[in-house]
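As a warm-up, study this chain.
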Amino acid sequence: MARKHHYKRRKGNDYEIDVTTFLNLMVVLIPFLLITAVFSRLTIVELDLPSNASGAAPQQESFRVEVIVREPGIEISNGNAVIATVPKKDDEYDLVALSEMMVALKQEYPDIDTASVLLEPFIPYDYLIQVMDVVRTVEVPTDIENEYQLYALFSEISVGEAP
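Now compare it with the structure written out below.
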């Protein structure tokens, strides 16, 4: 006698999906992602990279700030000639002196907002960030002790390789 397998066939879908744990996760995750998205946007610095495309020649030659980071020190140029140099002190770049020169240049040319930071090939990346911060802003002490206020110097920065 042959055995017959009798399986109960289910008709319809008797299973229920429990989504409460998923909803709990979304309730926590979505506000967290929205809050962190706002803070991450504040840390972005937009840079202009030089391009090989040649545009129309400018009608009048204007002053252009170029900060060239070299192994012996930092050079400040107007695009044609070196205006000033800031030598290294104790194998470190003198960023305080560079900041003072940037403030003097901004006072002399208040309408200029663009600057170029150019590096030699083997200069560490950390120096690029430090020099960009010095060229972009200056910290000025306020009347309140241990408080500083940031002022913009040359906010539009282009980055490239030193000639």
